[in-house]
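Lab manual, section 2.4: Encoding a predicted structure.

Procedure: take the sequence of the chain (184 residues), apply the prediction step described in section 2.3, and record the output as structure tokens. A sample record is shown.
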Amino acid sequence: MRLRNSSRSWGLVARVLHWIVAVMIVVQFATGWLAENESNEDASLILIRSHFQFGMVLGGLILMRILWRLSDSRPCEHIAQPRWQTISAEAVHGLMYVLFIILPVSGYIVWVHMKESMDVFGLFTIPRLFTPSVDGETLWSGAWYVHYFAGWALIALACTHIAAALWHQFIIRDGLIRRMTTGQ
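Recorded output:
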């Protein structure tokens, strides 16, 4: 079992990070959406606290994923595809990575303004890098809107990513999903 990518397939580290991040994005979207739509304030706070804690863990995993991707070569394409498809795939991946950075940063800014505990599952505490001003909520509201719309944009890009993966697997039949799950 290879940890690193080969010229033909994804290694174990890239695959595990991909799938953990994919599952956590679903969890993050669900907890964020439920927290925003929960009428019970106590339940909403529990959900948004979970959203923050998982978000900080996810932010760390994203950082690991970015560093791993920069340090490991990508497998070669198995089939020749039109240039527009290659450019589209790279654009979707690139935008997803930009959002992977924007979301935890904007979420952190919102959380600091909420003046809630910065601990993550009791394991460690995220430091407060700034103190929000007492009278200004411009930074908070701007960060909230960025976080909200970036979350929806990530969901749209993730759906595009999933549709493209299914198209590769079932229309082109190039074994893309098999390579991303088993590394073969």
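Check your result against the sample. The first strand starts at residue 119 and ends at 120.
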